[in-house]
Amino acid sequence: MELKELVSRNEPRHTNNNSSSTLQSPSRISLRSQPMDPQDNLNEVVAPPPAYDTSKNSGLRHDYLEDRRSRGDQESLQQTGEPSQNAGVSSAPESASSVWGLSPMVYAIGYLIFFSFTGTVLRLAIECLTFYPGSPVNTCVLWANVGGSFLMGFLSEDQELFRIEDSHDRQSATKHKKTVPLFIGLTTGFCGSLTSFSTFIRDVFLALSNGLPVPLGSYSDLSLFGSVPAEASAPNGGFNFMAILGVLFTEIGLSLFGLTLGAHLAIGTSTWMPRLSQGWLRKVLDPIILILAVLSWIAVICLAALLPKGSQKVTLWSTEMWRGPVVFALIFAPLGTLARFFASMKLNARIVSFPLGTFVINVGGTMVLGMAYSLQHASVSGASVVGCQVLQGIMDGFCGCATTVSTWVLELSSLRKKHAYFYASLSVVVALCTLVLEIGSLKWTRGLVTPSCFRTT
After folding, report:
1. Based on CB atoms within 10 Å of each CB, which residue in 60, 208, 278, 325 is the most buried?
2. How far is CA 211 from CA 139, 161, 186, 214, 308, in A?
3. Which of 197, 195, 183 is nearest to 44 (CA)?
4. Is the pTM of this model over 0.90?
5. Which distant-in-sequence residues (6+ apart) come within 8 Å of 245 by Cβ?
6. Per the record, which residues fall in region Disordered (predicted)?
């Protein structure tokens, strides 16, 4: 059965101030008939590289996300004002055909589902690994955010992995790789799922409310979800203000550093970087990943049905932790990734100087996390262990994958400074205010309790 027009693209958008105002009529993407368009509204695709190779070009900044979107609007229009029907086809002639006659959009969705699993598991594993007594930083999602931003910087700058065999031009190589489903899967799927904006803002709120987890005691007995001991709390609110600044500067600063470092690594290793065969990707890897994505999602749903109903001691590496909340996180992870993917395609091009899609999904995902966190930590008698695990799965899976830091910092590095500061400030302030309303109103009135699925007794 043929899949019908799934996504509406390119609603009326703003164009460059130097050109006449035009409206682009809507066009639709068929999952079978068209290849990926290099001018799709994903900022992982459209954004310029975060660094420039000074040995080949000027070290001065000469390209911004706003400029690329404005040029993309104009280039995709014919002189009649209608969208070009050949957009993306000429740049990636090999991508139009595949083993099963499916378009790269279908395979891109398969990659997104598959990499949402790997990104979620790796993020949770990094959080557990970096939560230990004596840790210099208590925001455990920091290193996942830095790692995802590092890989995003590398992939955005790299010109070799997805290069067409007979192409030696940087512009054509960059345009081609953005039509490859694997590139979409690695950037939007893996990097976006490995990083989490909602968890980052949750840690900002916990720093504000004196509730940031502190690793005290034996490593084998630690838990990320227990209550904070009184001896680990800050003396007064002034220290909480310093904690907020510490979390903000550490998370944003190191994530931006990771993005730049990844781009520099791509430049430094460009001479030795191998080239992936486009035929092998299209005929072998794409179908395999599509099958694995579907089977993996079915498998984790079946695993959830076999979960134990009781609650034992839940520590960082206990079987209860990884058979309970983590499995539910994997169930919800693809939903969050796909929500972010389609929201970005629908909304990101509405305002060229403000990535509306990323903003909406980051703030919306943080709101969902605040709701789930409040329900999980409310003092309700007879709370269900499975219900608690489902709520944790929503926070780590759906919210963790729907919200992203890697794309966010890529946008910050690509926008003009005044737009970047406004976008970053508004994202953090609005998302934090939602948690203050959702979680703060409960914490400062009735108080928060340890979730039923993480109680040690």
Report:
1. 325
2. 12, 44, 34, 9, 30
3. 183
4. no
5. none
6. 1-93
